[in-house]
């Protein structure tokens, strides 16, 4: 092909060297430096199959800490993608003690699962810690997913993680996170119960009610075992394989066994009905990968906007105290967020119904037996008089992080008017987001790296103006002018050096930040659609009620000309300017890029 000095679509070269010479010549004519970005080598013979030449001043990511990784098969097709922006990394650093992993979302007709890591912030709102598009739900895929999750979050492991009842996922968790408590989502357990034992729920049967009671109501293991035995006997399910398998996992879902685990009250991966609705609304079968990420980012931004509103209300509105004269409530009103303060006040109200049934003292330890008016059961509370520490058999503080009414009763009996500092968890306070977070390389993680730079420039401007305003004599003016001109020369020389330093003809080929090889596209999943289970009569009734209520609300439809807004508030943009959608966008028309990846028009 005859070359006229301008790059064109479809140009062909005899070899890599001739292409590089052409690109270098074009850069010289147009006045910009050039460099080699990456190259792909064949896994068979090591020959270079593709590469990219770019301008030496090609911009960096608006936020270089945006994390993304992808996994490829032998044909260099993407199988799994994981990503987490800087805000997700910060959220996990502050609130990553208890994590929910939901993989029940399917993106499109290819039924590719969307894995969503989420949890609770200090306002008990939902925060996202990371997300992934998986090719399948095998142990290998889940193992890779958990490894990437730990990598982006500086190997910080959660105390507790909740998932559905998936064996492949459980196996991967055991390998990657052996020390993390693995809880089962009670919502999925109920759905599986309906699926496997739906025949027992006809004609006014109370099986589902009794099964649910075993999950939530019994605080003591003995009570649970008795109730479970009664359940097996009443409904004759002693030899049912599914019932046996669920019982073998009782430590992962029964309330009496989970008293030993820090859960924040979480029992399900379905943390928020609004989040589920928003995510499902953006998973339209006709949405391609770029539109999907745009919709997904809007969902995440909507949740962050909700937190911003809660932050504003917490700082601007006075808390409502049910007993304004209480020193303890006055103390906690200063530190707790409003919703956590309300939860504490619920326990504060209940302690008036508590009665001290027994009291035994030995040296600095006092043992109490507490019962409650019109409540079944008794609770043992230990109080150490010197440390002012307390522990209750209900273990509310150990599981949720807020003191129980039984402990408050003991505090009241010992004239403890303020909550000791060790019982005020920072994650529930207004200051939960304070503190510096570092990445795996020891660098400070900033949500918007330009923000600190802007503050520095603003501070310099103020100092320069102040200095100029204080100059009085001619000699001082000359000194200031000379120093200013010298600084200008140094800054310009620094800029020029950066440009010249990148305009070298023998630049090495730089590999992609994610992988030494660059994918050719996203692998199409060839599989069988997940079968939907038969719906029970109760579920059908609930679905019909929801449908009738939602008829008056607009439904989500997608078209190329319509806005990508999916109902998220547009009042304020909280996210930094860099996003996974921008990472996918390429300068060339009709193509999509993932880092250095190029592929055109693929759907998930």
TrEMBL record:
The UniProt entry, under InterPro entries, shows: FAR1_DNA_bnd_dom, MULE_transposase_dom, Znf_PMZ, Znf_SWIM
Biased composition annotated in UniProt, kind: Polar residues: 553-567
Would I find Manganese among this entry's keywords?
Answer: no
Give the signal peptide, or none.
Answer: none
Q: Which residues form the SWIM-type domain?
A: 379-415
Highest taxon above the source species: Eukaryota
Protein known as: Protein FAR1-RELATED SEQUENCE 5-like
């Amino acid at each position: 092909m005859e070359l006229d000095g301008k790059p064109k679509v479809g140009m062909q070269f005899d070899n890599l060297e001739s292409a590089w010479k052409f690109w270098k010549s074009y850069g010289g004519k147009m006045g910009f430096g050039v460099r080699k970005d990456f190259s792909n080598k064949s896994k068979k013979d090591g020959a270079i199959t593709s590469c990219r030449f770019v301008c030496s001043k090609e911009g960096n990511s608006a936020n270089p800490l945006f994390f993304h990784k992808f996994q490829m098969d032998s044909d260099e097709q993407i199988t799994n993608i994981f990503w987490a922006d800087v805000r997700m990394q910060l959220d996990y650093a502050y609130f990553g003690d208890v994590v929910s992993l939901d993989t029940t979302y399917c993106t499109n007709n290819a039924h590719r699962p969307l894995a969503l890591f989420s949890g609770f912030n200090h306002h008990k709102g939902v925060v996202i810690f990371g997300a992934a598009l998986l090719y399948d739900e095998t142990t290998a895929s889940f193992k890779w997913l958990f490894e990437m999750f730990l990598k982006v979050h500086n190997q910080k492991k959660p105390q507790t993680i909740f998932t559905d009842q998936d064996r492949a996922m459980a196996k991967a968790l055991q390998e990657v996170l052996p020390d993390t408590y693995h809880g089962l989502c009670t919502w999925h357990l109920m759905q599986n119960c309906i699926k496997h034992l739906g025949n027992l729920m006809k004609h006014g049967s109370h099986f589902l009610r009794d099964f649910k009671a075993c999950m939530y109501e019994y605080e003591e293991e003995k009570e649970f075992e008795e109730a479970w035995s009664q359940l097996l006997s009443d409904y004759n399910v002693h030899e049912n394989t599914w019932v046996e398998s669920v019982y073998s996992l009782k430590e992962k879902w029964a309330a009496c066994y989970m008293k030993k685990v820090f859960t924040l009250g979480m029992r399900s991966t379905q943390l928020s009905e609004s989040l589920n609705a928003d995510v499902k609304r953006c998973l339209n079968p006709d949405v391609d990968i770029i539109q999907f990420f745009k919709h997904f980012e809007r969902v995440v931004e909507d949740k962050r906007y909700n937190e911003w509103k809660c932050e504003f209300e917490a700082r601007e509105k006075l808390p409502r105290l049910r007993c304004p004269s209480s020193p303890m409530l006055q103390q906690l009103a200063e530190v707790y967020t409003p919703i956590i303060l309300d939860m504490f006040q619920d326990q504060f109200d209940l302690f008036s119904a508590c009665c001290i049934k027994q009291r035994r003292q030995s040296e600095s330890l006092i043992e109490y037996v507490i019962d409650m008016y019109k409540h079944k059961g008794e609770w043992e509370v230990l109080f150490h008089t010197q440390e002012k520490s307390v522990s209750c058999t209900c273990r509310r503080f150990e599981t949720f992080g807020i003191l129980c009414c039984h402990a408050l009763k003991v505090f009241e009996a010992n004239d403890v008017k303020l909550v000791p500092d060790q019982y005020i968890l920072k994650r529930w306070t207004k200051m939960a987001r304070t503190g510096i977070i570092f990445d795996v390389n020891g660098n400070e993680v900033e949500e918007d790296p330009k923000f600190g730079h802007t503050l520095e420039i603003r501070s310099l401007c103020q100092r320069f103006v102040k200095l100029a305003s204080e100059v009085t004599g001619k000699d001082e003016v000359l000194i200031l002018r000379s120093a200013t001109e010298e600084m200008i020369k140094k800054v310009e020389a620094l800029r020029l050096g950066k440009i010249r330093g990148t305009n070298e003809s023998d630049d090495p080929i730089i590999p992609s930040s994610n992988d030494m090889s660059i994918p050719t596209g996203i692998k199409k999943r060839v599989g069988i659609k997940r079968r939907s289970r038969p719906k029970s009569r109760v579920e059908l009734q609930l679905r019909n009620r929801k449908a009738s209520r939602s008829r008056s609300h607009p439904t989500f439809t997608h078209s190329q000309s319509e806005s990508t807004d999916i109902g998220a508030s547009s009042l304020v943009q909280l996210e930094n300017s860099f996003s996974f959608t921008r990472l996918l966008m390429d300068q060339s028309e009709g193509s999509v890029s993932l880092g250095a990846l190029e592929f055109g028009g693929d759907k998930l």
